[in-house]
Amino acid sequence: MRIAVGLSGGVDSSVAALLLKQAGYDVFALFMQNWHDTTGTLHGDCEWEEDKFVAEMVAKKIGIPFHFVDLSDVYRQRVVDYMFDEYEKGRTPNPDVLCNREIKFDAFLQCALDLGADYVATGHYCRKEQFIDKSGETIYRLMAGTDGNKDQSYFLCQLNQAQLSKSMFPIGDIIKPEVRRIAKEADLPSADKKDSQGICFVGKVDLPVFLQQKLKAEEGNVVEIFSDFYKSITPGDDIESLSTPIKYNQSDGKVIGTHQGAQFYTIGQRKGLNIGGHKEPLFIIATDIENNIIYVGEGQEHPGLYRKALHIIEDEIHWIRPDMAMSIGEQRDYLIRIRYRQPLQKGRLIYTGNGMYILFEQAQRGVTPGQFAAWYSIDGEVIGSGVINR
Length: 390
Hints:
9-stranded antiparallel beta sheet, 8 helices
């Protein structure tokens, strides 16, 4: 069996490659470059070259062939252009989820298959299981990683059965400290390398500067909404009302400053406002792209930060397990996650002719359009996901 390992230069993919080699598989490394432009990045101009150098040293140390592929064009088309488009609409995309769906387990996977691979292995902290259903079809299950602190199953919540069928996750049942130990014991060049941060394959960025490559900066007002405002609101208790965010007007609060473009900000954001005079930090509770206004509230418990429900449009509902897809009118309880590393939340999926609603047992902080909601079974399987519409 021939396996291509997506070798990034990091410790996780390095140990994945090592374990597969030690298990006797025919392994080769495949490093992908996905980004050239350094506009807005906060690191050196040639960070990808350093990663490639480390990855080559790791491959040499393990004793496996090394290949290189440039996927920067397809990455720009499928991930970066999508990011710009979403931010322009006032939504906050998750590029890591998109990168896995569109690049690592699609364009990159195809490159690996073209090079003769039977499977692609990555250093993700998640697991894969499979079983044969009554009709004789193999069903693949995407499971949370054993290390609860590093579980990355959320980032893979948009994969499908075909992609899972060709995937391997060698470190999914290992905790991070053990991965580090294995790497040091094997004297891998990546053993002490820090985990990557920022946008997938772009790196840590100054987001407004990065987005200004295509989105125009324009000064607008910052309006503070005070907690007393909510006393005059009588919210509906139906699912449509609960999933619809409050529509603010500038007259509902007080102008306390200016910003350089509502599209550069996201719900729940705290940094980047540079407005003083408050006892507690200010958080963004809403953005109005059309009128270029951002609304803020003081303190982590500000009522404008919390919602009991969210909505996903029909076209953006995705089932990793199509055999478990819901029928119109059906309701089902799952554990939900609306951002990476968020503890799983109890919630109910309600599937109607108007898409999917998720009703949470407890109100959720910072429900953000453009992000992904993923639903899990009680035993840690990711069943499906969807892009939050509102």
